[in-house]
Design brief:
By secondary structure, the protein is of the alpha+beta class. It has 2 domains: 70 residues, no CATH class; 99 residues, no CATH class. 36% of the residues lie in helices and 19% in strands. It has a 5-stranded antiparallel beta sheet, with helices on one face.
């Protein structure tokens, strides 16, 4: 995984900060490691006492164990469902992304009509693609949808906050 391929993370100083930003590692662990490194490397500080070193060894062990799945399991797609639906099978979103796709995000699935806005200023997530209301579909498997439900098939193009949420979800799938 090459974290520099996330163009929206270029303002993050280093790889560890990028990992924390994506929710892969916890900021407290990151902060403790960086404080020790900075003290020794930049301020000619003394290394921590043996007890603190032993504590940090355990932090690092847990860090390595928690990030092992990132190299063992490559997720290509994952599903999201709405929690406010009477039947979660009615509303779902398949998300395709990952390193093999250069982190581009494609989505497809059924969403409640009130989650869709054709106005960019009202959007939490910008999608370039096709949108079809269930009432306009003639295929039999669409009969379970509310007439106002919308089938979405497209690419997520922004804003940055939406991309970050999809990537954080991706990494939470990998860690499970």
């Amino acid at each position: 995984m090459i974290l520099s391929t996330f163009q929206f993370l270029t303002y993050q100083r280093g790889a560890l900060q990028r990992l924390a930003f994506l929710g892969i590692i916890k900021p407290m662990v990151l902060g403790a490691l960086i404080d020790i490194r900075d003290s020794i490397e930049h301020a000619d500080g003394q290394p921590p006492k043996l007890d603190r070193c032993n504590e940090m060894v355990e932090y690092i062990w847990y860090f390595l164990r928690s990030t092992d799945p990132l190299v063992k399991k490559i997720v290509v797609s994952y599903f999201l469902t709405t929690t406010d639906s009477d039947d979660p099978d009615d509303h779902w979103l398949e998300v395709d992304t990952g390193p093999s796709r250069q982190w581009k995000i494609d989505i497809r699935g059924w969403l409640p009509g009130d989650m869709i806005s054709m106005s960019e200023r009202n959007a939490n997530c910008l999608v370039a693609g096709d949108f079809h209301r269930a009432k306009d579909h003639e295929r039999p498997h669409d009969e379970n949808q509310s007439p106002e439900d919308v089938f979405v098939n497209g690419k997520v193009i922004g804003p940055r906050e939406a991309l970050v949420q999809f990537y954080r979800h991706y990494f939470s799938q990998v860690k499970d």
